[in-house]
């Protein structure tokens, strides 16, 4: 029986060590559902939520990424660390994976009978019979992805808390202190929001938090492998072509908006660099080819020793491989895309390209732009500045 005692001894050491890694934060936690939009939107929201958690001095529970697959009624939740490392985020603020929190701390910190969901004001349920005027509710699990998100961790809420008029702009007000005053951690150990406690697009001040988002080894390696084995040796230009049917429809909003999605990244948060225009959202094929050729020429002039040898195209719909290959044939530049569609490998490769041209309105492009900014890599936007304005600036410079 000696061996059994030794086995039990080692198992208890392992259990104790695992639990020692997860010590309760007396300052409390913040949880939220990234329930709006796809990856680009969620990434913008993530940076704001990280800043918010830091301002309130609560540990941020890292939510899984919410993904939507064709033909599936329920969203899929993909663990945060599938795409990004947890460790580098700790340099900025305390974070914990949602699965770790639920597996190791929730029973003690956030018992099932004390789980309250937070929303600004009452959220009506789509199922009329659930709406009770005497008992307003956040209906935090109503619909997709709300239900599937919390279900992933078997979370049910026993009540709702309406936090209005508090808001999330911790960068421009003293609101963090008010949150702390209203919601003391011993009484409210977890503030669990129905949506991200952040604005979209990401605030200017929070853009630089991107530097703490480091690709997981799997995606870093996939990008490196593609660049090493598929692309010819030499510099390459990364292109993001956002042109699916959802985008065509979204671009129709251009005419009645000052800003759309990520557009402040080129127009400025107060439109200080211009107004919205159609080509910024959906450049024509001709404009894309013109701008690409111009960029290649400029790189040749400015960096003659690091000539562009290839172009990598990421797209949600039309990669324009034939048109681009044809247009660049005389320059001896090849055009590539992933063999198998993968939005995350696309992003990781675009982040590594020598030059990048993205879509100013797209938050997917914005992710790439921010990542490249943290490395000092150059990025440009399709049809920005406006062609007419660009010609005027050029003429002015030549005078
Ligand atoms: O990321 P996202 O919020 O960016 O949504 P936008 C676009 C999604 O389309 C990405 C796919 O998360 C990807 O799944 N996608 C876009 C791509 N570009 C590529 C690409 O180059 N390669 C691959 N593989 N996939 C806006 C949203 O999308 O679209 C708005 O912000 C709205 O909420 C609008 O839904 C219609 O900002 O571009």
Automatic annotation (TrEMBL):
Catalytically driven reaction(s): L-threonyl-[protein] + GDP-beta-L-fucose = 3-O-(alpha-L-fucosyl)-L-threonyl-[protein] + GDP + H(+); L-seryl-[protein] + GDP-beta-L-fucose = 3-O-(alpha-L-fucosyl)-L-seryl-[protein] + GDP + H(+)
Enzyme kind, highest EC tier: transferase
A single Gene Ontology CC term: endoplasmic reticulum
Principal location class: endoplasmic reticulum
Entry EC no(s): 2.4.1.221
GO terms of molecular function: peptide-O-fucosyltransferase activity
Subcellular location: Endoplasmic reticulum
UniProt key word Endoplasmic reticulum: yes
Signal peptide: 1-20
Pathway the protein contributes to: Protein modification; protein glycosylation
Superkingdom of source: Eukaryota
Oxidoreductase recorded as keyword: no
Entry-linked InterPro entries: GDP-Fuc_O-FucTrfase, POFUT1
Single GO biological process annotation from the record: fucose metabolic process
Alphabetized UniProt keyword annotations: Carbohydrate metabolism, Disulfide bond, Endoplasmic reticulum, Fucose metabolism, Glycoprotein, Glycosyltransferase, Notch signaling pathway, Signal, Transferase
A matching Pfam family: O-FucT
Family: Belongs to the glycosyltransferase 65 family.
Protein known as: GDP-fucose protein O-fucosyltransferase 1
């Amino acid at each position: 029986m000696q061996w059994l005692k030794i086995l039990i001894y080692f198992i208890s050491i392992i259990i104790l060590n695992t639990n020692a890694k997860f010590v309760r934060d007396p300052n409390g936690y913040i949880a939220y559902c990234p329930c709006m939009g796809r990856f680009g939107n969620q990434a913008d929201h993530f940076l704001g939520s990280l800043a918010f958690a830091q301002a309130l001095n609560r540990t941020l529970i890292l939510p899984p990424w919410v993904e939507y697959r064709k033909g599936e009624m329920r969203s899929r939740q993909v663990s945060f660390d599938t795409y990004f490392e947890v460790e580098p985020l700790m340099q900025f603020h305390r974070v914990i994976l949602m699965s770790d929190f639920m597996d190791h701390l929730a029973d003690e910190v956030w018992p099932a009978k004390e789980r309250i969901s937070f929303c600004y004001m009452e959220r009506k349920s789509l199922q009329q019979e659930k709406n009770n005027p005497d008992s307003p509710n956040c209906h935090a699990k109503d619909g997709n992805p709300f239900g599937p998100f919390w279900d992933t961790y078997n979370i049910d809420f026993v009540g709702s808390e309406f936090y209005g008029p508090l808001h999330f702009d911790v960068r421009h007000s003293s609101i963090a202190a008010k949150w702390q005053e209203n919601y003391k951690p011993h009484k409210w150990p977890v503030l669990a929001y129905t949506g991200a406690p952040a604005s979209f697009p990401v605030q200017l001040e929070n853009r630089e938090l991107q530097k703490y988002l480091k690709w997981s080894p799997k995606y870093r390696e996939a990008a490196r492998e593609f660049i090493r084995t598929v692309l010819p040796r030499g510099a390459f230009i990364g292109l993001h072509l956002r042109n699916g049917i959802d985008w065509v429809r979204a671009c129709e909003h251009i005419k009645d908006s000052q800003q759309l999605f990520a557009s402040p990244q080129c127009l400025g948060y107060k439109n200080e660099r211009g107004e919205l225009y159609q080509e910024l959202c959906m450049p024509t094929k001709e404009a894309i080819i013109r701008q690409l050729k111009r960029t290649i020429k400029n790189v040749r002039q400015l960096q003659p020793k690091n000539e562009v040898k290839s172009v990598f195209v990421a797209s949600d719909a039309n990669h324009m491989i034939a048109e681009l290959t044809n247009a660049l044939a005389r320059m001896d530049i090849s055009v590539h895309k992933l063999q198998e569609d993968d939005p995350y490998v696309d992003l990781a490769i675009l982040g590594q390209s020598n030059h990048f041209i993205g879509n100013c309105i797209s938050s997917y492009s914005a992710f790439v732009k921010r990542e490249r900014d943290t490395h000092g890599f150059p990025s440009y936007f399709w049809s920005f500045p406006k062609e007419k304005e660009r010609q005027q600036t050029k003429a002015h410079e030549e005078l």
